[in-house]
What does this fold into?
Amino acid sequence: MWRKRRNSEDETFGRTKRVQVVDEEQKKELVSMDAYYEARKQRESISKTILVVEDDELMGQFIMQALQDEASYQTLIATDAFRALSIVRNIKPSLFLLDYLLPKMNGIELYDRLHSAAGLEDVPTIFISAVPPIKQLEKRHIYYMEKPFELDEFLQKIKELLAEEIA
It folds into this structure.
């Protein structure tokens, strides 16, 4: 309709606005639906386990804290490759975050061993390293980030890889 309202602070230039009236019961339902979807989002995030293999304890703690605070992922940390191999005997992570320069075994060797294990072949991986072995990573089609990295970009890539895992 094209009527001009009179005695109104809101000039509509000849248009009558359609306003949807929401009663208290509908408001409660909308709020509970928002809570439902937020809880569902939290459950989906928390059900994802990320194995961080990082020998620098401060860096490992930083990554673990960021993943728990910013994205609510469950995070396990291993300070060397052998501890990581021990962890995956009992738990199947949704994602591996691997440093390249690890004691006793480098990240590429660990990646090869993890992905040759039954049930872990398709677990996505991100390498995080100050000196990534770019040719080896590209040959294996592995995503990598150089330290120091941008936290928002890091979290976004994790979200993308975990979403692909579901699809």
